[in-house]
Design a protein that fits this description.
elongated
């Protein structure tokens, strides 16, 4: 129900604060998976990690876990693109049958 959304914890309850925070996020360049994240992304991470009360070790573990998940996702995407290419080739050969 829509009323349930009022019970979801958020970092700021004031609409203006939320709007300003979202504008800052939208203005950031795309996030990189490795290397320098840029100060804007680090500021956002710090706010979230502080709200979750994560220790330094837990923060590093979160970054490591996200990196591993992205690696798995990219590997899966590459394997699926190969399957898709093979399927398209089979379909192309099927269309040429009887020509």
């Amino acid at each position: 129900m829509v009323a349930d959304y009022a019970q979801i914890p958020v970092l700021a309850r004031e609409e203006k604060c939320i709007e300003l925070a979202l504008q800052r996020v939208y203005a950031l360049p795309p996030r990189k998976l490795t290397g320098d994240q840029g100060q804007g992304w680090l500021d956002i991470d710090t706010i979230i990690f502080d709200a979750l009360e994560l220790t330094r070790g837990e923060r590093e573990a979160a970054y490591e876990a996200v990196g591993e998940l992205m690696g798995v996702r990219l590997t899966k995407a590459k394997s699926l693109s190969r399957v898709r290419e093979a399927r398209l080739r089979v379909e192309a050969v099927g269309r040429l049958m009887g020509v």
